[in-house]
Design brief:
The structure is a single chain. With 147 residues, this protein is mainly alpha-helical. It has 6 helices and no strands. The protein is elongated and about 80 Å long.
């Protein structure tokens, strides 16, 4: 028996927090899945079946076949441009290493380094941006060899 969220809220029942989707979301997802499958099959029919066959069946209101190729290409180009712009915006919003905004407070600088213990999780602490950049970009580390 399906009990919808609006009914639960109206009756004052507590909504349980679970990883499984609510029935409404499951129904919406299934309808979206079926719609996308139907749309894709419709696109394939339009793109690959000759125009004369479609006209014979009575389907005359179709866009030109040019758009069967142009729309996916335009979509792909739009996605690539969006990724490039996102990368550029992230690079523009990142502070340089000598910026005042990368200075941390006294608590972060006075954190004590605990001794490294074998098979233990390291203590949580702040790492300065200059230390991170030094570790990742400036220093080449050799892998330790066990002799």
């Amino acid at each position: 028996m399906i009990v919808f969220l609006s009914h639960r809220l109206a009756t004052g029942e507590m909504v349980e927090n679970s990883p499984s989707p609510l029935p409404e979301r499951a129904i919406y997802g299934f309808v979206l899945y079926l719609s996308s499958q139907f749309g894709f099959i419709l696109y394939l029919v339009w793109a690959f079946i000759p125009e004369s066959w479609l006209n014979y069946i009575g389907l005359t209101y179709w866009p030109q076949k040019y758009w069967a190729v142009a729309l996916p290409v335009y979509l792909l180009i739009t996605i690539v441009i969006a990724y490039v712009l996102l990368f550029g915006m992230n690079m523009l919003s990142t502070c340089p290493l000598n910026s005042v905004n990368t200075i941390t407070d006294n608590y972060a600088k006075s954190q004590q380094r605990k001794k490294y213990q074998e098979e233990a999780i390291p203590a949580l602490r702040d790492i300065s941006i200059s230390e991170v950049n030094h570790m990742f970009f400036l220093e080449t580390k050799e892998l330790p060899t066990n002799n």
